Amino acid sequence: MKRILPTFTLTALCLLAAGCATRGQVNPDVMQIATAPLTCSNSGECATWWQRAEQWVRAHSTYEVETATDTLIQTSGPGGGKRALAYQITKTPNSDGTSTIGFAAHCDSSLGCKPDPWAAGAAFKQFVRTGVDNSPPSHPEDVVAPGSPH
Fold this sequence. Notes:
The protein is an alpha+beta fold. It has a single domain, classed as 2-Layer Sandwich (TATA-Binding Protein). It is built from 4 helices and 5 strands. The protein has a 5-stranded antiparallel beta sheet. α2 crosses α4. The longest helix has 20 residues. The chain starts with a helix and ends in a 20-residue tail after the last helix.
């Protein structure tokens, strides 16, 4: 019996460590999309992309949008140990007439963020570029099923 307990404890610790080791890994495809620069090439494209940026943040943030200007979209939060992401989106003009849209997301939980900030960044950038949103909204209660009364 004395030999079983240390072996069991060691096995349990190894399994726990293995589970934690894979938890922080980011899919390389998601990482590539999330870290790719988001640069619009002209004023029309930049206006469209900036409008989409605000639309995405409003649809996906648990927190209210505090600031929405021509160069900054920022939510309140994070706070109180919550896992929900707070967002800060910036638009910076470049010397060649293009603009770069920056994305930052963070939470206030030691347990990690929901959604994952890398996945959120990738979803944000895909939506801003294409207008197609493949990520679930942050507030499912706001989703209206097709054909249902509004």
